[in-house]
Every structure is written in C-alpha cells, then in structure tokens.
Amino acid sequence: MSAPYDTLYDFETPIEAAVATLLSGLGLTTVVSHDAADYAKTRARVEILFKQDAATRHQSMVPFTFPDGVTRNVARYDAWQGTLTLQVVVSTGAAGAPSHADFALYRSRIRQKLAAWWALNDTDLLPWYKIADCLDAGATPALRSTDGYWFCTLSYHLEFTIRGEAW
Fold it and tell me: N or C: which end of the chain has fewer CB within 10 A?
C-alpha cells in the first residue's frame, strides 16, 4: 500500500510523533514542534525537534505519472540524514520540584530509550519510514537558576529511508 506524496515527504511530523511515543511513560510531558506554544510552563518536559539534513544519494525506482498521463518508473531519492534534538526542561527550587538526581535520571532514561532506537521501526509508529541508524551526538546540560530550571539538549544523528512498500 503506497502513501500519497504529500504524506510521504512530511518526515518531521511522523518521526517526532514516533519519538514522543517511544519516550512516553518517563514522567516527562512530550512536546513536538507542531504542538501549540502553551506548553512552555509545563515542567518536566522534553521538546522533540527533527530536522531533515542531506539526502544520502540512495535512490529507488518508483512510478511517476507525467503530465501527459503516462506513468513511468523514475529514480527518486529515498534516504536522508537528519538531526533529532531533545530539549529536557525540569523545574528547580520549588517545593516538590525534581532534584538534580531526578534530572540526571530523566536524561539517563531518554538515552536508554534511544539506545533501543530500532523500536522506532515498528510499522505502527512509522509506517512509511525506516530508521537505519540513530547515533548519540552529545549532550549539553545547564542550569538556569535565575529562571528556575535545569535543561539539557541531547542530540542524535539519524539516517532514515522511505520503506519500499510506501511508493
């Protein structure tokens, strides 16, 4: 079963949603780039942003209908690289706020989930895409004591393809 191209070439929405599903149950609110902006005061949260990077030059032969109505197979890029950025934000200082140990635990649990990145390849999560690799690209933890929160940016390098049956 093939996907319409308008759906097929929207990489960000389904990849962010799949990562949010993978990270559910960690005690963090998950927020993706297309969510309403009213989440900013929600803590503890993880903001999920996927950015498509360059194509890998891998191509598949796929059917394409030309303006004259004739359908022929043409070569189309079907694999890309991308950057997954996870921003973890946790309140500090207030009564009942998570401790720094809790903040470290959130980071650790996110890393554990993404270490098992192949779980993203469940066709219920990503019916049109396959994650070929998810490489930890580093983290930058920080404290914004004047604003009352800890935050950490975790970055991952992804390689993904369009599944053959999606065309």
Answer: N
